[in-house]
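During the second half of the funding period, the structural biology subgroup turned its attention to how the target accommodates small molecules. The most pressing case was zinc ion, which had performed well in the primary screen but for which no bound structure existed. We therefore specified the complex as follows and requested a full 3D prediction, including the ligand pose.
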Amino acid sequence: MEINSLAEEERWIQDAAKGNTFAFEKLIMKYETRIYNICLRLLKKPDEAYDAAQEVCIKIWRQLQGFKGESKFSTWVYRVTTNTCLDLLRQQKKVYDNINLFEEGDKLSETIDTEKTRQWKDLSSHMVDQEVTRLLWNSIQALKEEYRVVIILRDIEGYSYEEIAKCLSISNGTVKSRISRARANLKKILEQNQELYADLLCGNRR
Amino acid sequence: MKCSEYEVLISAYVDGMLSPQEKEQVVSHLENCTQCKASYEVLLHMVDGCRQINEIELPKDFHQNLMGKIQKEQTKKRCIKWLPTKKDDRWRYISAMVATFFLGIILFNEIKHINLKTDTEMTQENGVIVASLKENEEPGDSIHNIEERSTMSIRSRNVGEAPISQIQEDEVVNGDLEKTLGVLGSCKIVCKIKVQEKADFERQLEYILGKEQINYEKAENGYKVNCNTPIEKLVEWLEEYSLDIEWESGHDSEVDDAQIEIILMGVS
Ligand SMILES: [Zn+2]
C-alpha cells in the first residue's frame, strides 16, 4: 500500500516535471494543507500565509525539473516552504524591528518544584481544550524567532533533526542544542503566565 | 556531570535522538535526580501539548486559485516555446550560424598566423587570443571553444529561446509571477495566413479546433483562438495547410490569456 502510493507519487512527479498540470494537481493536493499550515505558523498572519503558500506551490511547480530525487520529495517540499517563509521573515525584519517579549539565554533556574510539575500534568490533560492550546500557541509566538522556528518545525510539524538541519543550514549538533534552549525558554514563558493557566485549571473555561 | 549539563541530553532524549550510551546515562540520572526528573516531565507535557495544536483547514479558494495560476503559467510557457517559429526567426538563426562560421574562420586564421610567429613578436591586439591558446595548448581545441562560445552568445540573443530558460530557472521573488512574465511581453500571437479557398479552410480549421477542444471565436477576417489547451497540432496544421504564413508576436502586454489571432489574407 505504502509502496504503491510512493510509486504513484513518483509518477506524478515525473509527469508534472514534464508540464502535466493534472499530475501536478494530484501531487500538490497531498501537500498543500501542510504547506499552508507551516506558512501560517511561521508567518502568523493568515493572508500572508495564504500568499506564501501559493508562492511555495508555484515554486515547486517551476523547480520540479530540478528535483532529482536525491532527497525525499516531502523533505524537499518542506525545505522550499521553510525557506520561503524564512526569507519573508527576514524581509519583514528589516521593516519592523523584531520585538522580543522575553529575554533569552539565561539558564533555567534549577529549582523546579513538584507543584509546577503537577500543574503541567493538569495542563496537558486539558490540552485538547481550545483555551489551553491558545495559551501554548501564544507563548510559542512570544519566543525569539530562532527558537520559535525550531519549536514549530520540531514540536508542531514533527520535522526530524536532519530535516531541520537541512532547512536551516545548520549542523545536527546545533539543531539539538537550539531545540533544547528553545524548549527551556518556552517553559519559562509559560511559567510567567502562571495566573492565566491557573485560571484555566480552576475551570474558568466555557 | 552537573544537572545543567543534562538539559540538552534530556531534550534530545524526549525526541529519541540519543546514542545508546547517552540514553543509559540520562536514564540513570533521571532515576536519581528528582529535579531533572521533574524537568523532564514538564518537557514531555509541553511537547505533547504542541503536538495537539490542530492543523488548520485550507482556505476554500486556495486550491482553485493555485491551479488557475499554474494553468496560466503553463499556457504562457507553451506559447513562448514556439514563438520563434519558422520564417522570420529561422533567418535570424541562420545569420547567427553564418556569423559564427566566419568568426571561426577569422579566428582560425588568426591562430594559424600566431602559431607561425614567436612569442616575442606578438602584437598587443592579439593578446587575448594568445592567452587562450596557451591555456588550451592545442590550437584545434581552442578554436572549437571559441566557436562554441560565440554561438552561444549569439543564440542567446534569439528572442524565443532565452526567456523560457529564465522562467524555469529563476526563482519567484515574492510570488510576483505576473511581473516576471510581464517582462517577456504578452502572449498574444498574430498569425497571418494565405489560403487557397476560404470555405475549405474554415471548415477544416473548425474541425481541428473542435477535435483539439480549443476555444475560439470567429472574427471578421479570421479567428481568435485561446491557447489554454495544447496548440501544437493546430500550429502544425496551419503551417502545413497555408500557402503562405506569417507569425508575429503582439506587443500588447495587457493580454491576459494567451491568444492567437488568425487573420486571413488575400482570400480568393
Ligand atoms: Zn539532575
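Two results from this model are relevant to the next phase. The pocket of zinc ion is lined by residues B 3, 6, 29, 33, 35-36 (CB under 6 Å). Residues 21-43 of chain A form the longest helix (23 residues).
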